[in-house]
């Protein structure tokens, strides 16, 4: 995505991909990993999969930025091909990097989207290798999560369209509603309701990408109606479902 925002505020969310952005003008502020961050012109942003963050303009004139979302499987393929052996996924500890080389690589990757498929593949490989080589610190290591919290996430992933209540989650976790809520926020950085909405948004986005009408995607993903989907889609992705589907 290439966009300019002056008033838009991103609701706290995460992506199931790596997300790499470069701020071209102005400045944007966001919270990530428990701290306030600012990305000004020329700075690079790097978010790991499932890393909660929000976002808003840091100055009155807003900000212009480019961002690309790359699935973990593509990252692994690029790194494995370069190393000629299986590799672990990288971890980006710093969400904001001041690195002109990385900023240039991301701009070239975006430019390649208008070029041939071969040019896109080459730009993707070069960008991923540059990002990992200059910005990543170590492989991702899975965290040991409480069994109850993990069960609740699995329930929300599997039954995202169901109108689950707090008691349903507490029963699945085998603990009180309060203990489950506290444990879930500690593990995933957001409340169960926010996580459920995020899973619904990802399913709606998948359906939209296949050409499903927004109204149908909304109902299939568990939203009350198209307006409900549109409101949250824009708050978390910055565009409406209709704009997302536009060629």
From TrEMBL:
This is AraC family transcriptional regulator. It comes from Amycolatopsis acididurans. Transmembrane segments: none annotated. Gene3D superfamilies: Homeodomain-like. InterPro entries: AraC-bd, AraC_XylS_family_regulators, Homeodomain-like_sf, HTH-like, HTH_AraC. It comes from the Bacteria. Keywords: DNA-binding, Transcription, Transcription regulation. SMART domains: HTH_ARAC (SM00342). Residues 150-247 form the HTH araC/xylS-type domain. Coiled coil: none annotated. Pfam families: AraC_binding, HTH_18. PANTHER family: HTH-TYPE TRANSCRIPTIONAL ACTIVATOR RHAS-RELATED, TRANSCRIPTIONAL REGULATORY PROTEIN.
